[in-house]
Amino acid sequence: MENTTIEIEPQWMRKFIPIWAGQIFSLLGSGLVAFALVWWITQKTGSAALLATATFVAILPEVLLAPFAGALVDRLNRRVVMIVADASVAFFTLVLAILFAFDLIQVWHIFVVMFLRSVGGVFHWPAMQASTSLMVPDKHLARFAGLNQALRGGMNIIAPPLGALLMTYLKFYQVVSIDVITALIAISPLFFIHIPQPKRADTTSVITPKTVLTDVAEGFRYMKNWRGLLYLTFLAAVLNFLLAPTSTFLPLMVTQHFGKGVWELSLVDSIFGIGIVAGGLALGAWGGFKNKMLTSLMGVIGIGVGTLLFGIAPGNWFWLAVTASAVLGIMIPLANGPLQAIMQSKVAPEMQGRIMGTTNSICTMMMPLALLISAPVAELLGTEVWYWLGGSLVILMGVAAIFVPEIIHLERNMQSVAAEVPVVI
């Protein structure tokens, strides 16, 4: 279903922009905490296995809960879901700050809180994305997807050096506490702005395990009928398998392979963010090729090139690693933005929570396996090996996907997967 059949309010920006702007603060706080926690684990342990474990516990909720969270998002009030999810993340972050303040912190505490924060994100992300398609006209979805990528890139620019600066002058618990404040700022607009809800054919108000399982199964059937989406989802799962370890081992690459410190790590992250901003703004202004999948696959190939460059950079060529980070950043919005626009414009509104949750679960399912395999490989052969392998295979897969008709013509082959669904404004 296309959003052109949905009645979007003429003054849609007055409602959407405050919610969208609130996410800026939330992303900043989350970026600060993520950078600080990764650096704390790196400095305290220097262990690739523990860094891999941190990533593992953060993505586990996406693998286990995303399809069910998506089903609940399609049944519940999406505005309330976002409020509860953000409030939960703020609460668990506050608990973590208290543990740091009283010097009670252990590595396993960080793992537990990362897991619980991720549970909140599993509900928030599909609720926000599914709400966007009901508030923003279809012709602007690709541009907002690009701007969202640019926004995330901007946080990558600001958060690492700001985190390094704050850790220099503030106590660690004070740095962590910033995320509590930013989460509350992000929640505030949601109390005053109405978000449209899709009208479902089944209007039962009782949510039971059976209804949730039925909804999840319906989501899988929907994907099965749209064969191109199914192929693309499994392609993304393999790409995540190859690329997940590269982001996890970044602190070790900077400190051990290049012999640098926290400021150089923040520089790599910031350059990566500048690239995302540049790529996101370019996509926001351009909108991509008419065939959105061609834009996305060109971005995938570019990601592979950037990853390979980072891995082959000699230890005394840190400048090449910085350049590779810029290439990666530019390509990520081109790869992700068009896909997000396709999902928001082509998937029926009452199915979007389930489809986004299911695809997210499948895409992240391979990541824990990748971390379990890559950690001993990195300990034995060096972290750069995974960059060589991942970058080369991503390039090959991106090129091959261009010649798969179900993928390259994903939008055209969608046909009548979903019937038109009215929306309650």
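Second entry:
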Amino acid sequence: MAEDKETCGEMMKTKGYGWRVSLSIIMGVGWLIFLILWLFFYASDFNVYQNIAIFIVSVLVVGGVLGAAWAPWGIKHSKEFEEKK
């Protein structure tokens, strides 16, 4: 358990980790705000299938942005943290 805390602490100190965490939080909150606004103000103008499509596209956009942000960091630092396991 102590090893996990050490690895987690080291992970948080790596370059580029902080802004990626901030981006993840902002994207999550922004996505929820988008969904709330969409459902209250715009969803009634579209049918069920269009609303489902908009939901799926919004999930794909958020996932794509976060994937594009986290993938290079994970690839770059994966060997560092795998060696410590």
